[in-house]
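Let us practice reading a record.
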Amino acid sequence: MAYLSRAKKDNVVYAELFFDPQCHKQRGVSFETMADGILAAVDDAYHELDIKCKLIPCFLRHLSEASAMDMWSEIFKYFQQHPEERDKIIGIGLDSDEQDNPPSKFHGVFWKIRHASKSVVGDLHIVTHAGEEGPSNFISQALDVLRSERKDHGVQCLSDDKLVQRLREKRIPLTVCPLSNVKLGVFDTLKQHNLKRMLDLGLKERQHSLRRSSLLWWIHYAELSRSN
């Protein structure tokens, strides 16, 4: 609710929130408890702030695919037991450290997600963090192996002209988070960021708001706009 209240101040009317259920499962918190709590805040924000929000639980790529499979079983069970919440969880994502953790590592679990019964899970979208710290071929893997519909980050695509052409022609969206890229050392400063070049090349981009409480930093679109 605190994040959505802050987003409202920047005139956000719709948000898609990532969260990492495996972090909390390690502390003994069930997916049902997590989802119920977050969705209660989402409902409060809709009624009190007139802001709409959907959820995208993500797998942590530094953990094993077996761990992701186990998490997916809990998510699927939640869909079975709470069909009324199905339209509020709109996708499954993949995030965390790209180093030595290619998208192909999670081929099996995303195959299972893609083939899950639509009568239970609805039309779940697949989105992946790729091509921030990892190489451009991680973006291609996410497209071809996981069948990801949207790339979060994707700034490394400019090292591969054929990939840029594919992203442009297929209108595959990229959600770019410049402050994350600077904090992780992908770029030294915001002025060095390649966002403008990506836009000039006709890529379909959205600037993205990201908060990482463990690193105690965040950025909002309005703040990024004021920095330029």
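A brief commentary: The chain has a mean pLDDT of 90.
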